[in-house]
Amino acid sequence: MSGYAGLLAALVLAPLLPGVINRTKSFFAGRRGPPLLQPYFDLAKLLRKGAVYSTTTTWLFRAGPVVGLAAMLVAAALAPFGGVSAPLAFAGDFLFFAGLLGVARFATMLAALDTGSSFEGMGASREAQFAALAEPAFLLGLTAVAWKTGGLSLSGMLGTTSFATWSGAAAPLALVCVSLLVVFLAENARIPVDDPNTHLELTMIHEVMVLDHGGPDLALIQYAAALKLWVLGSLVVGIALPVRSLAHGWAFAASVAGMLALCVVVGVVESCLARLRLTRVPQLLLGAGVLSLLALFIGLK
Amino acid sequence: MMPIANGGRISLREVPQLPVERFREEIVAAVGRGGRLCAFFGRPAGDGTLLLALLSSGETSGLAAVSARVGDAYPALTPDCPQAHWFEREIHESCGVTPEGHPWLKPVRFPRGDVGTADFYRVEGPEIHEVAVGPVHAGIIEPGHFRFQCHGERVLHLEISLGYQHRGVERGLVGGPDRRTMPYLETLAGDTSIGHASAGALVIEALAGLPAPPRADALRGVALELERLANHTGDLGALAGDIGFLPTAAFCGRLRGDFLNLTATLCGSRFGRGLVRPGGVLFDLDPARADDMKARLADTLRDVTAATGLLWETATVLSRFEETGIVTPAACAELGLVGPPARACGLERDVRYEQPCGIYRFRQIPVSTWPTGDVLARANVRALEIQRSAEFVDALIGALPEGPLRAPTGALAPDSLAVALVEGWRGEICHAAVTDDRGRFAAYRIVDPSCHNWTALALAMRGQEISDFPLCNKSFNLSYCGHDL
């Protein structure tokens, strides 16, 4: 099975993940919840609609969703899945990966600032602040994994975790898993950092930056968000699951199951935690950074 | 000053008419002694305006009325008595009288149109930015405009501009009471139908001199407490929803409906419309339905206690509620706050306790207070009141007084003033009516608790994170339409 199977899985299955999270939350709230495939229906609906553009916006506003999705597609091609190398693996690609996340964010923030809305400006400011704290946690965590596994590409680091790696370096790998899980929640605008379901503009972070987008643009944004959920999730699952010890087909199936389980975890977290006060979010992200650093130190020893 | 009981009536001639300086001194002195302005309004008299103030004294039960005749202007009370600020702005816009020295004489309801078009307080500086929210909001809520002056995420000042739902309820009531009167009162704030209808019925009964029979008083009490139960439950759920705390938000939404259904069992309307009428109530509660209600009340209360109990057990919830949106006891006393926000500052301010009327003369409800003045305190006061109100309803429907449901109402006394205070779920509801020489309403004034409390929300936001505004707003949950009338 080649790395293209993982990429294909990302492209096709990504919108399923928000559906799983929503169903988990509905279960805890005592509701039946929307269909698992609702995100696909939403994308199909949005793609059929027209878009409305404010006369105060420029090309930056229209470029935001396109650049955001393009960056995520490349990122998806970098992330290994199911124990095989990604189609675009090269040494040091994890730095490029972090850069792609940054490019997507930059495009979204520019589009938000381009509207001139005070809400979107606040959202962009929050996004920049929190991303600046999430990035070190992410990079330090991956550095620790690179040190332990000896790989310099994402494929080398994540595709190779086996029972042997885990038994040799359980402590740093577990710390990185927790740290990356926090980064995963923050980057994907989930509770406890952001609330994807709120309608309150003053409290939003990610959602508020895309308020003025509609129709196909919003579809691109939602698809890119689902891809981001998949790609970052696959990193957490890639470290946590010792897939190298499994046969290829089983590794792939285990990874897909791991992704779905991760979404259930997110749903459970969202069902029993309240959102943090915005001033507390940096503490959480710094904590994740400290965990990554600790993993690196333990690993260096 | 002329004393007047809650649910009482005096002749207009008995209301002392003082020179405006004496009028001012009397009110400032009474408020200084712990009294509070319940209502303060103007009405045309000859070529001038008659100002009429209704005060509740902090010392004794009952109210006091005092009046003064003024021309185009008079020295404002607000500099010496801040709780008059809203009333004086209202007098300025509706009577054209200028309270001289009022620091911020903006319209409150914009009755002449161009709602919201006025200067806003501005903070100047290179890093200051202004955020305008509303009047059209993202959620299904009422229209209101909020203007924040911010430094980064921190709010320096919030100004609230309302009036978008001004529809002339008070003007529409003049000439009554007639067949429209009670439906107007029941819908002036849709979530407080029983509260406002009860106050209106008390005013009409006071003017007619024929009180409602005891069984009707008791049923009104049941309905009023059910209204409180439903709204407090909904508020606690909404507070949880604003911070993304799923379990309480999900369950309280349903449980609020269960309480509304209890009201529907009583009178056929989930919001209690058509229950309260002058002279009594229109629906009786037979023993079979009373037993059914008791059982369902116990079930619902058990679920509400469990669902809201999660709030106090979850650390992330407490960290959002604690020390968010603090109103100091000093600000509370100065602004004359009412209802849960006042009790959340540790004040025992509750009409049911201070100015009991109707069933509350015979059955007392302990006043629920919390000392800290923050969102946690306002949530806790609601949770405590849910317990007290449920006990009250449970005891009362098991022991309803016998007798008729409705007393005949007669003609209203001419040239009189009547006033009624009711502790609605939001706080003190004040209705005051003045009759003409034929015994029709010459003026009808409604003071929803929101009129007192909106400014407290603005104060609570000072120095807070702007992202905490929705949470603070929900912890007050004030009425827009009840304010705009």
**Helix amount of chain B, in percent?**
40-55%
Architecture of the largest domain in chain B, according to CATH? Orthogonal Bundle
Q: Which structural class is indicated by helix and strand composition of chain A?
A: mainly alpha
Averaged pLDDT of chain A: 90
Enumerate how many helices of chain B there are, as a single number.
Answer: 16
Classified in CATH, the superfamily of the largest domain in chain B is Cytochrome-c3 Hydrogenase, chain B
Shape of chain B: globular
Q: Identify the overall geometry of chain A.
A: globular
Low-confidence stretches of chain B: none
Class by alpha and beta content of chain B = alpha+beta
Assembly of the depicted chains: heterodimer
| Percent range for β-strand residues of chain B | 15-25%
Integer-rounded radius of gyration of chain A:
19 Å
What's the number of extended β-strand segments of chain A?
A: 0
Runs of chain A in which pLDDT lies below 50 for 5 or more consecutive residues are: none
Secondary structure tally: strands of chain B? 16
Query: How many separate domains of chain B?
Result: 2
Question: What are the main properties of this structure?
Answer:
heterodimer, A: 301 residues, mainly alpha, 13 helices, B: 485 residues, alpha+beta, Cytochrome-c3 Hydrogenase, chain B, 2 domains, five-stranded mixed beta sheet, four-stranded antiparallel beta sheet, 16 strands
